[in-house]
Amino acid sequence: MPQGESGNRSVRNGATGSFSAAALAATAPQSSRNTAIGVLCGLTVVLIWAGWAVATRFAVTTTLRPPDVAFIRFAVATLLLLPVLLRNRSGGEAGGGLELRRIGLAKVAIMVCGAGAPFIMLCTTAMIFAPASHTGTLMVGAMPIFVALMSALFFGERFDRPQLVGFAAVIVGVLGIGGNALLHDRAGIGVWRGDLLLLLSGAFFAAYTLALRRSGVTPWQGAAIVNTISFVGFAPIYLLFLPSNLLVAPWHDTAIQILAQGVGAAVLALFFYGEAVRRLGAPRAAILGSLTPGVAALLAVPALGETLDATTVIGIVLVTAGVMLVSGILSKRRTAAIAAAPAPVRSGIGS
Question: pTM score, two decimals?
Answer without folding.
Answer: 0.74
